[in-house]
Design a protein that fits this description.
Shape: globular
Radius of gyration: 15 Å
Largest sheet: 6 strands, parallel
Helix content: 25-40%
Number of strands: 11
Structural class: alpha/beta
């Protein structure tokens, strides 16, 4: 994670150079620039990938909303992110919520919606359908999935979602 000096933060590696994230992890890969004002929503906040994504995005200074089935699962995900970052202050940039109560509103405000649900195509497609109905037209919809087809996940979604859908290999 490096600051670009242009009002954006860069997520991931760049040009084959190994970088260390805010969580202390090293990675190779794609570099993505996000505006400082982007709000990030994480679906699947209680899993390893969701907690790791919260660590990366909140550690980089973004306002993050972690969503799960219930607040207890979100609290567990936040604790995992704090442990990974070794920083309790991470919670200052994180809101917790549930799919039923908060997904629609959070998606409507987010510039990036990061899906880190279980590797279950019907489950991911169900949540992407909900996101499609409520997201901002310019919001990026991303997945951390490495085992499922991106085209399969995006199939049947609006043209706007398909144009703004990507995979982000954080780890």
């Amino acid at each position: 994670m490096v600051a670009s000096g242009c009002g954006e933060r860069r997520i991931g590696g760049h040009n084959g150079v190994r970088r260390r994230s805010a969580c202390g992890r090293q990675s190779w890969g794609l570099e993505i620039c996000l505006s400082d004002s982007i709000k990030v929503v994480i679906l699947g906040a209680n899993g390893t990938m969701g907690a790791g994504a919260a660590c990366v995005f909140a550690g980089a200074g973004y306002e993050v909303t972690m969503l799960a089935r219930d607040l207890g699962k979100c609290e567990a995900g936040l604790a995992a992110a704090q442990n990974s970052a070794r920083a309790e202050a991470l919670a200052e940039r994180v809101k917790l919520g549930t799919y039923d109560g908060d997904l629609a509103g959070a998606a409507a405000e987010a510039g990036l919606i990061f899906e880190s649900l279980a590797e279950d195509l019907p489950l991911k497609r169900h949540f992407l359908e909900i996101v499609d109905r409520h997201r901002r037209p310019d919001a990026i919809v991303a997945t951390g999935s490495s085992g499922l087809s991106l085209a399969g996940m995006a199939r049947g979604r609006s043209e706007a979602v398909r144009q703004h859908f990507t995979g982000i290999p954080l780890f």
